[in-house]
Design brief:
Blueprint: H1 2-16, E1 30-36, H2 37-47, E2 51-57, H3 70-78, E3 81-84, H4 94-100, E4 106-108, H5 136-153, H6 158-184, E5 192-195, H7 201-207, E6 210-213, H8 225-238, E7 242-246, H9 252-263, E8 269-274, H10 289-304
Parallel strand pairs: 1-2, 1-3, 3-4, 5-6, 7-8
Helix pairs in contact: 2-6, 5-6, 6-10, 8-9
Bound molecules: zinc ion.
Zinc ion binds near residues 64, 131, 199, 276 and 277.
């Protein structure tokens, strides 16, 4: 039923774009609002010059705790289409997105991903890990779903969106192969990725890397002293060379682990920062999705080799 409503809304998007006299000679581009910068960048590859894409959450923003500002609400109000990650990544926006779905298409990337591919973890809301962009294969499944839905809403650009998607898929596949080759080169015994929060489980699954998050699923949770002590023991025992901080979360816990290791006369490096839930500044290495993946792979190889 929802799909039928969306289709109707999509068709009516065009009729809404009449000028004041009601003439329909020229319509402006569709305005799509993405929740995160990662989604914005990927959508830009798909829509090209057929639509305008903006994002609510800019560089370095933690989506788990983000609350929309009045300016964000204005942007969402003006959007023709909203695209979100889903799986409660946008924890504080879930209700608001449901409300917008009553009046305009709200497309969810996770809806295009096979349920069997979603990592289950009690640490997350609904027991589903939302960090799906770190498995390029399933992320592209999600983006394919969005490209197809956009083509239904904007039929005149349908083929253009799918062609763009396929071109982007090739670029993503190349980076994926490159990442696999580089991460395979790490000596297996030290191949454990210890990070600030549990953002990298999909990444670990895709590239055969053991992953330990210091902070439980969401960045909302407080890390207990016991967990820190356990992690110190783990790092010392496995002789892990580096633990990684992230751009969108605090490095406080990582630093307590380093201090804990020091007390046990084991020296572990602080590495990164890795891009986890947000892109870097536009002119930085991590300023786009593929750049962020590459920067992470290089930092991990450097820190663990
Ligand atoms: Zn996260």
């Amino acid at each position: 039923m929802k799909k039928v409503i969306y289709l109707f809304l999509g068709l009516s998007l065009f009729s809404c774009r009449l000028d004041e006299e009601g003439a329909s000679e020229k319509r402006g581009p569709l305005h799509i609002v993405a929740t995160t910068g990662i989604i914005e960048d990927c959508l830009n590859h798909i829509v090209g010059d057929s639509a305008e894409v903006s994002a609510i959450m800019g560089p370095g923003t933690d989506p788990h705790t983000y609350k929309p500002t009045p300016a964000d609400i204005e942007l969402l109000d003006e959007a023709d289409i909203i695209v979100a990650n889903g799986l409660h990544l946008e924890g504080k926006m879930a209700e608001m997105l449901d409300q917008y779905a009553e009046e305009k298409p709200v497309l969810i990337i996770a809806d295009g991903i096979d349920e069997k591919e979603i990592i289950k973890s009690a640490d997350f809301a609904d027991a589903k890990d939302p960090h799906i962009w770190f498995d390029t294969k399933i992320w592209m499944d999600g983006l394919w779903h969005i490209a197809r839905e956009l083509g239904k809403l904007d039929t005149s650009s349908k083929d253009y969106y799918m062609d763009n998607f396929e071109a982007y898929q090739k670029e993503v596949d190349e980076v994926d192969q490159w990442a696999k080759a580089h991460l395979d080169s790490i000596d297996h015994s030290g191949k454990v990725l210890v990070t600030s929060h549990d953002a990298f489980s999909y990444f670990g699954r895709r590239y055969n890397l053991e992953v330990k998050g210091i902070q439980g699923i969401s960045t909302l949770s407080e890390v207990g002293l016991k967990e820190i002590a356990d992690m110190v023991d783990f790092v010392v025992e496995k002789k892990i060379k580096s633990i990684f901080i992230e751009t969108s979360t605090s490095d406080k816990t990582a630093r307590s682990i380093i201090d804990g290791c020091k007390a046990k006369k084991y020296s572990v490096e602080l590495a990164g920062p890795l891009y986890s839930d947000a892109l870097g500044e536009p002119d930085s290495d991590g300023g786009n999705y593929l750049g962020m993946l590459k920067a992470n792979v290089m930092a991990i190889v450097e820190g663990l080799k």
